[in-house]
Write a structure and sequence with these properties.
hexosyltransferase activity, Glycosyl transferase family 28 C-terminal domain-containing protein, Glyco_trans_28_C, seven-stranded parallel β-sheet, 11 helices, single chain, Rossmann fold, 2 domains, alpha/beta, six-stranded parallel β-sheet
């Protein structure tokens, strides 16, 4: 018995890696946790007590799949936890999972496109190859949510409510804004190709709301962009909790982190091959254009916001689930 968990968290952006870290950091208090990721941001984070196997995001699908196979088949562990993609991002898990019968396998079922589920016959595949399915706060209306071995938790977050630093402290130390100034945070946590839109949006917001502090939260400073408006900080939830309004995409982490800390989210629903951001954006203030975003921010700035108090589903998953 190695008392080690291996978490498969491949996928672009922050999402899969952040969700894996949310679970892994809780589990790492009592065991070793190893995370496989190809996130381009993997080298810019705190590993939260986990060991991260980083596969460069530019490696190509064939090389990535081969590295995944080598890690899964040659690493010693007693739990395999797969985030979102039952067969793997490139289908590389399809022939591996049947070889792992003595090792419990758990699927983390974030919302995915039903067409993908149907095309790959994932219902049968998951029933045959996974011992448990955990839905991390995405509700009942998911393609695989009615399988018999499904367990639901609250959304998984990388910080518990009591761990969040003081709001005024974050504004002063990290965002570099005056405590009493209304603050707008643009969360550029998706694909690198979307950074241009968020850059334009940040500059427009600064122009339209000169009385506010506007910051873009991004891994890298956009080209030809004022560094005084840029913040690079992980975990991002600490910055979101210090904002009056957040503007971002409708990815898993952005939506549920803003909901948890009681800060309104103005959300763009970006097209994704597997994720349905348009569905999740219904939990926020969905917009399509920069003009709509600015108008929505204007209506939200005077709202009184609630004090953050929430349940972290990652803690539930470690303590009470079939993990």
């Amino acid at each position: 018995m190695t008392n080690t968990w291996l978490i498969y968290a491949l996928g672009g952006g922050w999402g899969h890696l952040n969700r894996a870290l949310s679970l892994g950091r809780i589990a790492a208090k009592e065991r070793k946790v190893r995370i496989i990721t190809n996130s381009p941001y993997a080298l810019q984070i705190n590993n939260e007590g986990c060991t991260v196997h980083w596969i460069p995001d530019k490696a190509g699908i064939s090389a990535t799949c081969q590295q995944v196979r080598e890690i899964i088949l040659k690493t010693r562990y007693d739990r395999l936890i797969v985030d979102t993609f039952p067969r793997g991002l490139g289908g590389e898990l399809a022939d591996i999972l049947p070889q792992l019968q003595p090792i419990p396998r758990i699927l983390i079922h974030r919302d995915i496109n039903p067409d993908y589920v149907s095309a790959k016959n994932l219902r049968s595949f998951v029933k045959d190859n996974y011992d448990a399915v955990i839905v991390p706060g995405e509700g009942e209306d998911l393609p695989l949510a009615n399988l018999p071995n499904v367990q639901h938790t609250a959304p998984w977050l990388i910080r518990n409510a009591g761990e969040l630093p003081d709001k005024m402290s974050v504004r002063s130390r990290i965002l570099k804004v005056e405590p009493d100034i209304k603050t707008i945070v643009v969360c550029a946590a998706g694909k690198a190709s979307e950074l241009s839109l968020f850059t334009q949006l940040t500059l427009h917001l600064q122009q339209h709301f000169p009385e506010c502090a506007v910051r873009i939260l991004a891994a890298n400073c956009p080209p030809n962009f004022p560094e005084t408006l840029w913040v690079s900080h992980h975990p991002g939830i600490e910055c979101l909790a210090a904002a009056d309004v957040v503007v971002g995409g409708a990815g898993y982490n952005t939506v549920y982190e803003c909901a948890a800390v009681g800060v309104p989210l103005v959300a763009f629903a970006f097209d994704r091959l597997y994720d349905r951001q348009a569905k999740r954006a219904k939990k926020a203030y969905k917009v399509i254009t920069i003009e709509q975003a600015i108008a929505t921010v204007k209506t939200l700035l005077d709202n009184n916001l609630s004090v953050p108090s929430y349940i972290n589903g990652a803690v539930q998953a470690v303590i009470t689930s079939k993990l």
